[in-house]
Amino acid sequence: MSQPEVLLALRKLAQKKHVSQEDFAEFNKFVDDLSYDQMESLVSDRLDMADGLQIISYLFTGLSMKNTSQKKRIKLFEYLLKETQEKDLSPRCVSGILTWLAIESINCRSPHLIRVCDMCVDFVAKTANLKEQDGTSCCPK
């Protein structure tokens, strides 16, 4: 399935996921069956577009609690944190991504949550270094 076909199917299934349990199960299976590379490609190509946050939402919502899906969830989480640091994204986009990741962190199992916390600490440290900020620049005068 080509990327445009995957994107179209993802949108179509996501729109009807609330209709019935069967529709949600179909949506869930579709997202679970996507490879991590397909997910990263979808996000990468649309991250700075108007529907980028919606695609992220669809992917995280569709991932089940299976171990293989949890691994994809963590890799996607890490990828998104890295992209917010490396790409020149709008503040709205960065805020949306970080908000979604904060909400998503409650769906992680303990070992994965520890990894997420470590990634967030690294993110803050790297972001502060990139902006050349120190503690005094964050405090009011």
Automatic annotation (TrEMBL):
It comes from the Eukaryota. Keywords: Ligase. GO terms for molecular function: ligase activity. This is Serine--tRNA ligase. It comes from Lygus hesperus (Western plant bug).
